[in-house]
Amino acid sequence: MKKMTGLKQGMLYLICAAVIISSPSTVSAGNGQTAVEDTGEQPPSLRKEIQKLKNGNWVNLTTQQKLEDLDILYQTLKDNYPYFHVLKRMRNVDLEEKYRTARKEISRGGTDIAFYQQLDAFINTNDQIGHLMLDNPYWYEDSASSYKSLAKDYPEMERMQKFSAAYNNDKSVENYGKMKAITDPAYNKVMAYYDAAETAQDTGTGSAADNVRTHIDNVQTRIIEEGRIAYIKIDSLLPSNVYGEDKKQLFDFYGTVKDYDNVIFDFTDNGGGSMNYFNDLIVSPNIDTTLKCNAYKLIKTGENNGIFLDFNDYRPISEFPGLPLMNQDDLSDMDLFHEIEYTTEPLGKEKMLKGKLWLLVSDTVFSSSEYAAMFSKATGFMTLVGTRTGGEGIGSDPLPIILPNSGLIVQYAAEYGALPDGSGSQEYGTMPDILSPEGESALDTCLRVIGQNH
User: Fold this and answer.
1) 196-205, pLDDT tens digit by residue?
2) CA angle 386, 390, 393 (to 5 degrees)
3) φ, ψ at 240 (rounded to 5°)
4) What is the residue range of the signal peptide feature (predicted)?
């Protein structure tokens, strides 16, 4: 069994902000469905704005070069990406069929921006099942910069050096930089919308602000009932190299409400980030014994996976135990696995918070925030309230596929996460301990239960 503690447990687990990838009015409804909130005005998204662009070349790729990039991308996914069957079940998406469609469209020729849009239609319509995503220039820049910084901070970690080298390869740096000249108008349009909404929110005017969730204040705290109920809302799990301000804010608040009977953590808008945030700032300060949670990671032995993963850390799939809820189609695609033990140690001898801890969850909970939900339920650290989560909380940083001609990068999760019963973390997420009735918010459910138990 492989233990995962501290930094190795989840270096970054970078997740894109809604403003960069998709409209914040579009949310996953769980179990393969997508819901669109009836918010009236539809806020713009960068993805949609880039899809509207008509003209633009920054590399002047030939049709043959584009087809070669597409072919390499699809073959690399076939050899390395573990979620082909899950995509079919959850989204009714057949990647092979989409690949054939994309190849026909690309064969007709077109501009570089048209090629990007065609790849985006092939990849990003999959709602990030298994973190499958085509990097736009702005997400790419953030990723390249973050990995370069982490590689500098942790020179002894070979895997971080590989991530930094991959994201900062000369072709991607140059070509994504050139691409921005084409996409900046779309980016500026979206940013102008959110800047205006933020200004309206600050001044208390403008209905647009009601539909926008900003991340200036990543942590919001308040007292619901003096001496008895405290509330902490966290919108994103920031990486450890930048979570310092959140740490101070949280620990100061812990000191204020240390003797409260109930402390509610709200993750209903939290789409993930770094597993370390949850472990370091929420779990460790509030336990007095070591907590452990077991799971499984399954992988394919493709060449791209081999660049970043050490196959010696895994066992042959023939030795995988017969778990009752393991999907056999998924299992048939895998080559190796290992059992993982997530472990978190107490920060001190005493808990900072003495009362009962609650975690509010929704289908927005994904990736590292899904890990938080899974870990909390499995260990009994917090009681979960709300609706089924969005899934995929078992794994590590998505791996990059670098397309040789365009320099574009597609990321994917290499590890298929399974719970001890075999159920897939991506597909099933975590069912809360207390399910909110339809029409009742997770917070209202939690307060109602607390009131009943008082």
Assistant:
1) 877 776 655 4
2) 110
3) -65, -25
4) 1-29
**First CA to last CA distance, the chain:** 42
The SS3 call for residue 138 is: helix
Q: Check whether 115 has a pLDDT greater than 90.
A: yes
The tokens 């365009």 sit on which residue? Answer: 406
Closest by Cα among 431, 447, 429 to 386: 431
Quote the mean pLDDT of the chain.
Answer: 88
| pLDDT exceeds cutoff 90 at 40 | no
Q: How many helices (H) and strands (E) does the chain have?
A: 16, 16
Q: Is the pLDDT of residue 175 over 50?
A: yes
Q: d(Cα 400, Cα 81) in Å, to the nearest integer?
A: 11
How distant, in Å, are the alpha carbons of 228, 247, 265, 376 from that of 282?
19, 9, 9, 11
- Written as six digits, the tokens of 301 are 């032995």
- Phi/psi for 233 (5° steps) reads -110, 130
Burial 370-403 (b: 16+ CB within 10 A, else e): bbbbbbbbbbebbbbbbbbbbbbbbbbbbbbbbb
Would the pLDDT of 42 be above 80?
Answer: no
Neighbour order of strands in the sheet with 356-361: 219-225, 229-234, 262-266, 356-361, 383-386, 434-435
Locate the DSSP E strands across 85-217: 133-134
Beta bridge pairs of residue 26: 36
Whether 91 and 31 have beta carbons less than 8 Å apart is answered as no
* The pairing of beta strand 356-361 with beta strand 383-386: parallel
Query: Does the structure show a pLDDT above 60 at 18?
Result: no
Give all domains of the chain, ordered by start, each with its CATH number: 20-207 (no CATH), 217-300+335-393+429-453 (3.90.226.10)
pLDDT-derived band at 290 (thresholds 50, 70, 90) equals very high
Rounded to the nearest 5°, which phi and psi values hold at 297?
-125, 130
Q: Write 243-248 long-range contacts (CB < 8 A, 24+).
A: 243/274, 243/276, 243/277, 243/280, 243/281, 246/218, 246/219, 246/277, 246/281, 247/280, 247/281
Confidence of residue 8 (pLDDT cuts 50, 70, 90): very low
Q: How far apart are CA 122 and CA 103, in angstroms?
A: 10
Q: The whole model's pTM is what?
A: 0.81
The answer to whether residues 260 and 355 touch, using CB atoms and an 8 Å cutoff, is yes
Task: Report the alpha-carbon distance of residue 413 to residue 136 in Å, rounded.
Answer: 18
Does the CA dihedral 64-70-73-77 come out positive or negative?
negative
